[in-house]
Amino acid sequence: MPNLDKSLIAGLPPFQKLSADEMEFVLSHARSARYSRDSAIFSQGELAQSFFLLLSGYVRVVRTSPEGDQVVVRYINEGELLGIAIAMGTPTYPATAVAAVDCIVLIWPNAIWPQMQERLPSFCTSTYRTIGTRLQETHDRILEISNEQVEQRVARALLRLVQQAGRKSKDGIAIDFPISRQDIAEMTGTTLHSVSRLLSGWEDEGIVRNGRQKVIITDQPQLTLIAENRRTRRKA
Amino acid sequence: MPNLDKSLIAGLPPFQKLSADEMEFVLSHARSARYSRDSAIFSQGELAQSFFLLLSGYVRVVRTSPEGDQVVVRYINEGELLGIAIAMGTPTYPATAVAAVDCIVLIWPNAIWPQMQERLPSFCTSTYRTIGTRLQETHDRILEISNEQVEQRVARALLRLVQQAGRKSKDGIAIDFPISRQDIAEMTGTTLHSVSRLLSGWEDEGIVRNGRQKVIITDQPQLTLIAENRRTRRKA
DNA sequence: CGGCACTTTGACAATCCTCAAGTCTCGTGG
DNA sequence: CCACGAGACTTGAGGATTGTCAAAGTGCCG
Question: Where does the HTH crp-type domain start and stop, copy by copy (chains A, B) (predicted)?
């Protein structure tokens, strides 16, 4: 196993308060792996044997219903944990994680979780905070889907993506990973057709620029207006 | 402070594995309180200073958006924890808890959480499992709202209520607490009007019997059919 | 260069929300 | 005990939003 350097994880929230020794301990039990774009890091229903930290790239987490419908649960950024079924007492992964771009992850076997709980309480606290935050974000999403129009929801989703994974390009702010209309639809509870229509309309108004699996936001203030104005009927 | 008897909590999942001494310890830090119907146990945004266990009654947990829209996050049953912001590292309560009927709760100050973490790991593990389960249920709800019609969603919500708080009555299975059309609407992301129409229709078909803040399910198999029989929203 | 996946766009329709007007139930106070 | 009022519920009409169906572009990879 290659040596993993402390600089990989130093400064990341989960490891914020750890001493050099403790980071050594953490890394000594981790291995790293590379996942190429569109490959699965773990799959829904699979027995959870490890938990993960994303070192580089972006991961899309997808949940599938028994009927085969899907939603995008979230996108994971660099430095975030994923697959932490062990911390939730779940024997299997509750969703599927797919590399949205080529990714590098650290992997720990679930077996060391008890030790970490004992020796690194600050790490665990951080993990539980992460789960709590995600629960609340999910509730906010239910509020959104329940009470807002498709237009607002898509606008908000884009703004969140900009916030989370925006990268300055010369035309505006681009989402830093490939994302399809279908993906956006699965984030907002609508269809790819509606998303496509909205994006086309916004492009005509100079708010975004569209491409294949690509969205560039060129007028964020205007998009924010759309997200907040419930029920602004704009005509051609 | 009145003496709290171990029999109050013995057998409840969070305290399953505790010794008599440990239960003594837990109870020595708890106080009990009574909340009358429609009163708030804690409020969204309020500084979280305690966590709770519902001994008797039912509690409705509601989340409100900045715009004032509400959704019912869940109903809490007897024996369940609520207001466990401390376990999620949240300084304030993320939702409001309202007594759906007269309730009795146990209350612990957040200050003793660190001690419990240290002395009663099984209790904490159970708490984290609870949070994990709720996160997954919430994701399932997003799947439902995103992909199913109003009719299916309301049917499913009723079935879940039956499962969770069904009580045999001579006509069928009644929901064991008062629940309005508006409440059901806020559970399913629709309007009280749509819920009312559906329930009226189902009453005509002999599937339910309706009353003021009351629903009795008389034909559960038929309702299950409605919940599952969905016009799929699938794409090519 | 061919094929595939992604995207766009039009036409149409239905689900479900909004608005509006009642009716019914129940608790409270006279 | 009865009347009253407020909150809960029902129901109808109408139409906007947005999903469905269909078909044709378009960019990209091998």
Answer: 148-221
Q: How far is A39 from chain B (nearest CA, A)?
A: 22
Do residues B103 and B85 touch, judged by C-beta distance below 8 A?
no
Q: What is the pLDDT of residues B38-88, one digit of tens each?
A: 999 999 999 999 999 999 999 999 999 999 999 999 999 999 999 999 999
- For β-strands B208-211 and B214-217, DSSP reports them as antiparallel
| CA separation, residue B176 to residues B57, B169, B215 (Å) | 9, 10, 9
Number of domain units in chain A: 2
Q: Which residue of A has its CA nearest to B133?
A: A88
Q: Which amino acid is at B41?
A: I
- Nucleotides of chain C touched by protein CB (<7 A): 6-10, 15-20, 25-26
| Angle of CA points B79, B160, A153, to nearest 5° | 105
| Residue B174 in contact with partner chain A when CB distance is under 8 A | no
Orientation angle between helical segments B150-165 and B181-188, nearest 10 degrees: 110
Q: What is the CATH number of the domain that holds A156?
A: 1.10.10.10
Strand order in the sheet with A50-56: A31-35, A103-109, A50-56, A81-82
Cross-strand bridge partners of residue A56: A104
Cα A214 from Cα A132, distance rounded (Å): 31
B155 and B140 in a single domain? The answer is no
What residue numbers bound the domain in which B207 lies?
Answer: 149-228
Measured CA to CA, the distance from residue A165 to residue A143 in angstroms comes to 23
Last residue of a domain, one of A98, A129, A145: A145
- A192-214 pLDDT, tens digit per residue, is 999 999 999 999 999 999 999 99
Question: Cα(A15)–Cα(A26) distance, rounded to whole angstroms?
Answer: 9
Q: Is the whole model's pTM more than 0.85, yes or no? A: yes
Residues of A in contact with B139 (CB under 8 A): 63, 71, 73, 94-95, 138
Alpha-carbon distance of B159 to A73, in angstroms, equals 25
